[in-house]
Amino acid sequence: MRREKPLKYHLEIRQQGGTYSGLIRTSFRVNGKVTHTNHGMLTRMTLEDLKVVQAALRGDAVIKTSSDAVTTTASKEFGASYALIELAKELALDKLLYSRPHEQWVKDALAMIVGRVVYAGSKLHLSSLHKDSALWELAGIAGAVDVDTHCYEPMDRLLTRQKAIQKALAKKHISNGQLVLYDITSSYFEGEYSESDIVCFGYNRDGKKGHEQMVIGLICNEQGCPIGVEVFPGNTQDAQTVPEKIEEIQKTYGVAELIFVGDRGMITSANYEKVKDAPGLSTISALTHREIVSLLERKVIQPELFDEKEIVEVIDPDAPSVRYCLCKNERVAAKETKTRGALLARTTKALDRIVHAKRKSTPERIAARVGKILQKTRMGKFIDWEVQEGRLSYTIKDEKKTLEELLDGCYIVKSDAPPDRLGKRELVASYKKLTLVEQAFRNLKTVQLEIRPVYHKKDHRIRCHVFICMLAYYLQWHMTKRLKPLFQADKNGKKRVWTFERVIERLKSIRREVVSTKGVPWKTITQPDEDQQKILRLLNVKL
């Protein structure tokens, strides 16, 4: 027998002789049939008082000013926490966490996942919200929440389940032969992490120099639904993670046939040699600038083949199974040309100050100044310079500059996927789906889930924190998908109303309150307004 969501609280007024009483009930559907749960009886009250209580439960009571007035206390956020927990259960996320979702540690883990979407912040902060939010009550905890018992210990249990959970997600959301999207990012730390093997210096993709970091690899299906996440040490290079990740997807997740899509520089020549013979595997990536120049030098391609409107497909004569799809974006081309021109102008202006200096200097000092300028502007490949008799002279490599301008806005998508499986347009479109992973990273790092700052100092807790954030994005992804009609109907610019953050705030304003009359308390939920009802309908959640 399956009990569905409660319909509403209501008060049934009864009369016996000359006295009145009120029965507080909630109504449920069980297998389509309405049934009731009784919560208590109000006695020794006048008919007028009972009608006030009855109206209060309907949401349209007029509060009396006498000593018999209805009082409201212990107001807590309810709507967002309840809606996301119900959505998680509908998606069977609680059962993916563990086969016995009624166990308290599973409920605690689900509360942390939902809490990441609704509140973000540290686990200590989340555990302190029991007086302000119904989240922990919905997780089965009445009263104070202990951060060790209800956060850290469940995190340790959850981490042992990560591989099994991700395998189940892959089985649910990836079919054989589908695209699998993979990309990595970095997240920086502040403070001391002397005991961590994860936190270290490396190439920082956020431009935060001087900060240690971790590297995060994310797997999504072709719609951008997150499937798996892994934390690597901060000095890990993109390409290092690819062969093992492909093996993990095929062997651990059981996706024998797939088209692996990785960003430029991931599927290097060395990596391709390692994975090209894997049964059932095809790859899609993009060439780096250096690899494009190499094709030009080998005369496999020519600059005039790049066209904004038409995708030109070229077969590599040294690797007949590999196709190159040549594309051009004129808007990007104009931007890159303008940026290079500005940087070259800044470079030559700075170099001219050295050239026209009144006093001669030593070659070492001049070289140091030139090196500093070229390092800052990154225009060294376009400049020939020398120092003679204490004076600097330089020239611009016009031929090199012209070639670079020809390649502005140009990119090449590379794949060994069979032409009958993906045509050239589908191939390019498949590569562009990596923007879905970039969108996931934006949500994880900055928008709603705020993966940093990381308050954990131990590596296993850092890994689990990232895993919780991924599962929170899994919820957010499904929630956003259901709310698509709301966002599509929204206006633009300053008339825009709806964002994901706005939806959460609107749901958070649905409160669960304790109402008392003549010292008799009961719990009630504020009546959702029109917007809130629309959100709940789209999410398929009933209060």
SSE topology sketch:
Elements: E1 3-16, E2 19-30, E3 33-42, H1 47-58, E4 71-77, H2 79-90, H3 93-97, H4 104-118, H5 123-127, H6 135-138, H7 147-160, H8 162-173, E5 179-188, E6 213-221, E7 226-233, H9 242-252, E8 258-262, H10 269-275, E9 281-286, H11 289-297, E10 312-316, E11 319-328, H12 330-355, H13 363-377, E12 383-388, E13 391-396, H14 398-406, E14 410-415, H15 424-432, H16 434-447, H17 459-482, H18 484-488, H19 500-508, E15 511-517, E16 520-525, H20 530-539
Parallel strand pairs: 5-8, 8-9
Antiparallel strand pairs: 1-2, 2-3, 4-15, 5-6, 6-7, 9-14, 10-11, 11-14, 12-13, 15-16
Helix pairs in contact: 2-4, 2-19, 4-7, 4-17, 7-17, 12-13
